[in-house]
Structure formats: structure tokens, C-alpha cells
Amino acid sequence: MSYLERAKKDGYAVITGPENRQKITYVTSDNHTENYNAPEEQVRAEFWAELIYKYEYPAARIKIEVVVPDRLPIDRADIVIFSDDECKRPYTVVECKKDGVTDAEFAQAIEQGVGNATWVKLRAEYVVIVAGGTRRVLDVSDKYGAYEREQNIIADLPKAYGKPQEFRFYKGTDNDIKPVSREELIAAIKKCHQTLWGGGRLSPPTAFGELCKLIFVKISDEQKPRKNGQPYQFQIKTHEPSSKLAERINELYDEQKTKDPEVFTDSIKVDDRVLRTVVSHLEAINLNKTDLDVKGVAFEQFMDGFFKGDFGQYFTPRKIIEFAVKMMKPENDWDVLDPACGSGGFLLHTLDYMRRQAGEYFDKEAQQVEYYNYWHDFAAKHLYGIEINDEIARVAKMNMIVHDDGHTNVISFDALGSIDTMHDHNRGFSKDKFDLILTNPPFGSTINKAEKPYLANYELGNTYDAKGKKKPRKNQSSEILFIERIWEFLKPGTGKAAIVLPDGVLTNSSSQYVRDFILEKFQLLAVVSLPQHAFAHFGAGVKASIIFVRKRAPKEKPDMDETIFMAAPELIGYDATGRETASQFDEIVQKYEEFQEDAHPFFV
User: Fold this and answer.
1) Adjacent-strand bridge partners of 387
2) Coil, strand or helix: which one is 195?
3) Whose CA is closest to 310, among 205, 190, 208, 194?
4) What pLDDT, on a 0 to 100 scale, did the predictor assign at position 72?
5) Within this chain, do residues 260 and 347 fall inside the same structural domain, yes or no?
6) Looking at the domain assignment, is residue 518 inside a domain?
7) Before 204, cis peptide (omega within 30)?
8) Taking the CB of residue 304, how many other CB atoms lie within 10 A of it?
9) What is the CATH number of the domain that holds 343?
10) Are residues 256 and 339 in the same domain?
11) Are 398 and 435 in the same domain?
12) Does one domain contain both 56 and 194?
């Protein structure tokens, strides 16, 4: 039961009216009534109830919309806690804003709250600014005066007129950090990114990279062994300047960076005060205990918007990834690779698939160890990714960490470069190694021989005359070279792949040599033609298909009796604007299973 629900049950507040026109009456504040549907009012109502039950202030001493005496123009404090039953001596002034306000709006709310709290006719000891999950508490007693905004920050409002605590959150207490809903997590991530981006202080991808570092620190701090009653370190401390908080966060980061140098190599590059604001957005959230599906969808929805346009090539829509994974049905002991992993979508959904499979084989509660080991061992030992862009590789690693690991074998590397060099960097990467490859390789970029001498090492990086004599090409499309690289990575005879390719590779007469290569080197199991709008929402308008293939054994020749499953769905779960629609993908998966049993082609 929430604090507000308790307040309603105890008769301190009443909510009336139809769902879209609700009114809230604060019974203990002279029956003051407001529009409950206003987002700001919902924030105020929840915190008002929290003051009663969590902070233990008498309901009759908490007043709503208190007029600031003799102040022109007329101003009202959202909430005032008084220290006497007559409500003459203000103790705390609270300013409430809706969740998701900008940093500038939050700073303005601080000034408004401090102005009210320090006004000569309304002198209070504390001011609290609340905007959803983001809070700031200031000591505005005579000790600090009306102009201090740094040294007088305290961790939390004191309980029941007591003394301020050193920290707000302590493990295993009523003030422990809590898991959150998807909406709350999305809001927090957006606020963090907005704070770091700061209207241009950092580029959006750089800001997201810094956010990844701070979330990494946050998760690491939650996972550190500590006894019940001990405070977390990733939080604001009473009377601690921003510089000291930054020192503490950087020490945590450096400690983890030493343990896991593959995740992050450089330092945190965030202004101290900006860092404090980010901490205030995240400190109350328990990321480790927040449901995995909630975290997955929250991060994905955030990145959905972030990776559109300029960064669309690093993000494959969720529905397409889920479909490819279901078609391939990965197994627990398979080595799985995405050689162009971008933000890590294929890897994450393969891990989610394995986690669901663990739930089918083991009771999540009664067989916790077996359940956990089943999918976690897969994540740690069998899941691999390559991403050429350092910043995006960091996003992929962070994504994996948020999903409870699997980041160890994600490397920042040119997947078309030397496999031997990759192997030297991480011994998990080698030829003929992988059971399954799931990937959406970059379309349209050109590999130039002058810049990338390795082009001549590829069969598809050369032309051949009638006598078979080869001549190096000056350039080749990246997606074509990825086809050959995928073939090199797969296990002979059994290795399978799902590859998103532009339709031109499958239809243009100039690409016949590529299709010949595919049919010679692979058994073509299925071709699913995606509608034009499949990637439009993410800034790419290229018509594409997914091919599903099996690498042939060394002496295996194409069989004229081989049949190919084909499908061309129009409904894929979303339209060109990204709005949700019906989907034919599950039907196609079912038809493909029937096709494999009967070896007859189906057209959907």
C-alpha cells in the first residue's frame, strides 16, 4: 500500500470524481481541494503522505497552499510543515514540481522554495524541492542564511523534527533503495541524459557514454558487500560539497575500472555539480533489484529515441530481433556472436531467450542456483559481440551489465579486420568457432582497399576472370564482406546465422556473384522479406530482408533438392511512425517449424 493510499484509508485525504477529472481534498489541511489529475498535484499528494507516514510529522501540522505573508506578488508555498499545533511556526517549506522538469526549472524551484522559506514572515529551518524521484533538501536556518546553495545541502529531511542523517539510504532499513517501475526508470534515465547533455555541453553520444559510466558505478556500489544499516556510497551526503561527492564517485569508478578494465578505460568527464544532479536522479533507485524486463524495456525505449537518425545504424528494432532469435532457437551450450552488435540488441534478446528457457527447466524460487547458473553461465561464456565504434561498444557493454552481465566478451574492434588479432585480444574469437550468428551488419558503407588493405584477403574483395585469375577490387560494400566474415566465424556443417541484408544484394543483377557465394558456402534455409517501413522509424529507409543460413561442411555441395522457406509479412508489430500494430512474426515462426518438419515451402 502506498503512503497516499494509507492517507486515504485513514481519512486524511479524499479523492473523488471520474478518472480523468479527479479532485483531491486534503482533509487535515482545512479541506483544501485541488485537481488531482495535474502531474504536479500527484507529486505533491504522494510526498505529503510520505511526510505523515515515513517522516512522522503530524498530519494536522502539514498545510497545503500556504500564503506567504506580505509577499507581493502573492506567493504560496506548496506544503509547509509547522512545529506547533497552532501552525504558527514554520519548520519546513516544500516546493513540488512534476517529474521530468529540466535542470533549469528545478533550479528555479529551488530559488522559489528558498525564497519562501527564508522570507521574513515565514522563517523555516529546511526547504525541500521534489520533482518525482529527484529531490534536494537544504538547511536554510540562521546558520547558513538565504544565499547558500552548496554547503547547506543535506541528505534528507530529518524525521519527526530530529537531526539530519548523514545519508538518506541505508541497506536493510526502511530507508533502503527500492526497485522502480518501467516508467520511473525511463524518466530517471531521460533526466540523467538531459542533465549530462545540458543543451550542448556534451554531444548526445558522449553524454550517453558518461551516463553509462555513472550507471556502472551505481550498479557496482549496489553490489558491494555491506552489512544491514550501512549506507550506500552512490548518494548525496549531508553538508558534503560537490567536489567531495565527485571524489567519492570517482574512487568507486576507479576501483571498478581496475577490476574490469575492458568496460571503461577513461575517467569520468563530468562537472562536479552536474555529477551531483545525476546522483540525485539515480540515488533512490535499486537497479539490481528492479525487474530485468523492466530494465530491458526501459533502456530499450530510451535508446529507441536516442539511436534514431544519426545513430540508427546501431539499433535494430526489438520486434525484428525477437523474431530472428525465435527462428534460430539458440541452445544453452551454443557460442553466439553478433559481429556488428551496435547497442547489443541481438545479444540481449538471446540472453532473455535463455533466461526464459531457464524458467521452463528450473523453478525460479525452489531451484535458484540451477536457474541462475543456466542463463548466467551462457552470458559469461557463450555470448560474444564486436562493435567498431568505441562509444557504442560501451553502450552495448553497459546494456549487458544492466541485464545482469554478459559484457565480458563484447569487444571494440573492426569485425572485418584480422581474426588472429581479435583472438590475441580475446581468445574467444576464432574461425570456425560459433554455433550461431545473429546480426544486422552496416549497410551502404564502402570498404576502400587503399584504407583497408585487408580487402584483398576476402574472396568477395576480388574479381575473377574466366580462368579464375583474381584481381583485387578497389572497394566493396561492407554488408557483402560481412557475409564472408560470418561464414569464416561459423562452425562448419552446423553453424547457423540470421543476417539482415539490403534487398539489392538479393535482387540486383550486379550482385549475382554474391548470391552465388551464399548458395555455395551456405545452405539457404529461409528468406523473410521485411516491409519498406521496417527501418524507417530508425532513420533508414532501405528495403531489407533477413536470410537464415547454415554453413556447409568442407566437402558439402549444394543439393538441387534443397528447399527454401520464404515469407513476406506486411505486419511486423509497428508501423513507419513506430506505433504498435499487429504482427505476423509468430505465425511465420510456426510455419517455419512446420516447414522444417515437412520440408515443403510455405509462403506467408
Assistant:
1) 412
2) helix
3) 205
4) 67
5) no
6) yes
7) no
8) 17
9) 3.40.50.150
10) no
11) yes
12) no
Number of domains in the chain: 3
With respect to residue 167, please indicate whether it lies within any of the assigned structural domains: no
DSSP 85: T
Residue-averaged pLDDT of the chain: 90
Q: How far apart are CA 214 and CA 217, in angstroms?
A: 5
- Helix, strand, coil percentages in the chain from 3-state DSSP, rounded to 5: 40, 20, 40
pLDDT at 194: 86
**Residue 19 CB partners (closer than 8 Å, separation 6+):** none
Summarize pLDDT for 205-264 with one digit per residue, the tens: 778 778 888 988 998 899 899 999 999 999 999 999 999 999 999 999 998 888 777 677
Q: Tell me the C-alpha distance between 128 and 81, whole Å.
A: 11
Domain that holds residue 223: 182-282
CA 156 to each of CA 55, 195, 381, 504: distance values in angstroms, whole numbers, following the listed order: 10, 22, 43, 60
- Specify whether 437 is located in the same domain as 585: yes
Q: Are 489 and 339 in contact (CB under 8 A)?
A: yes
Helix residue spans in 24-95 (DSSP H)? 39-53
* CB of 151 closer than 8 Å to CB of 266: no
Distance between the two ends of the chain, CA-based, in angstroms? 49
Instruction: Record the cell numbers describing residue 214, joined without a space.
Output: 555513472
Task: Tell me which amino acid residue 127 is.
Answer: V
DSSP category for residue 377: H
Same-domain status, 104 and 236:
no
- Domain-located, residue 168: no
Residues in the chain: 604
Burial (0-12, 13-18, 19+ Cβ within 10 Å), 162:
exposed
> pLDDT tens digits for 257-307?
887 776 777 889 999 999 999 999 999 999 988 887 787 777 766 766 665
| Cβ 130 vs Cβ 97: under 8 Å | yes
Report the CATH number that the domain containing residue 78 is assigned in CATH: 3.90.1570
Q: Which three cell numbers stand for residue 78?
A: 506548496
- Is this prediction's pTM over 0.70? yes
Same domain for 519 and 391: yes
Q: Amino acid identity, residue 198? A: G
Q: Rounded distance, CA 178 to CA 382, Å?
A: 32
